[in-house]
Amino acid sequence: MDTDKIKALQEDINNAKHIAFLTGAGVSTHSGIPDYRSKGGIYNGVAESPETILSDDTLFNRPQFFYNFVMNNMYFPDAKPNLIHKKIAEISNKKGTLITQNIDTLDTRAGNKHVIEFHGNLYNIYCTKCHKHLTYDDYAQGYLHKDCGGIIRPGIVLYGEAINPATLEKSVAAMEKSDLVIIVGTSFVVYPFAQLLAYRKPNAKVWSVNKTEIAASGINSIIDDARNVFLKINLK
C-alpha cells in the first residue's frame, strides 16, 4: 500500500470544493456482486457476447433468454452497501457528486443523495407495453406483464440503446464544476462513460483507485483494492 499517495489523496479531498466520483463494478464486489469481465465475472464463460445478450434486440426477440440471464446473473437483492459506498456517500453528500456505472442501487441505499446512475438501475422495472412500473417481486415471477401481456424489463441501458440525454447533461455539469475527480473500481474503458473525463476543469486533479492501471494521461494512480484505500480516507 502506497501510504504517501493515500495521504496526498486525502489532502486533495480535504482541499477540494467539489468532487466528482466515477465508479464501476469494483466498488460493489465487496458486497458480493461479481464484476463483469474478470475471471468469475458474470460474462466469464457465457456462450454469446454480452453485446448480444444484453441488447434491445435480445430483449424483444428472445425475451425468455434475456430474462433468464438477467435474473440468474445480475440481481443480488440481499446485497448490502459496503465501506466504499458509505465513504463515497459521506463525501458526496457534503461536497460532491457520484456518477456510477453500477446498476445495483447500493449507492443510494448507502445514503448517497447525489448519485447519477449513468446506466440506469435494475430496480427501475417497468412494462414496455403499458409502461406501468413494477417491483422486483413482480419481475421475479416472469417477464410477461399479467395485466397487458407486455414484456417487462429493467431500466438499464442495453447495448443498442443511447444514454438518457438528461443523464448525460447532469453528468457533464457535475464534471465541469468539480476540481477533483476520483475514479474508483473501474477499468474505465466503456464509452461514453470514460469520455466524461474530457469535461473536467482544466486544472482539476484526477485520481484513480483501482486494481489495475487506467490507460489515460494525467492521472494519479493508486493500484490497490479500493476498500484498503477507503479504510484510510476520512472526511474532515
Automatic annotation (TrEMBL):
Q: Which terms are listed as keywords in the entry?
A: Membrane, Metal-binding, NAD, Transferase, Transmembrane, Transmembrane helix, Zinc
Q: Which residues are in the Deacetylase sirtuin-type domain? A: 1-236
- Report the transmembrane regions from the record: 180-199
* Matches recorded under InterPro entries: DHS-like_NAD/FAD-binding_dom, NAD-dep_sirtuin_deacylases, Sirtuin, Sirtuin_cat_small_dom_sf, Ssirtuin_cat_dom
- Provide the active-site residues from the annotation: H119 (proton acceptor)
Q: What EC numbers are recorded for this enzyme?
A: 2.3.1.286
Q: What class of enzyme is it?
A: transferase
Binding positions for Zn(2+)? C127, C130, H145, C148
Recorded GO molecular functions are: histone deacetylase activity, NAD-dependent; metal ion binding; NAD+ binding
> Cross-referenced NCBIfam families, in alphabetical order?
PRK00481.1-1
Protein name stated in the entry: protein acetyllysine N-acetyltransferase
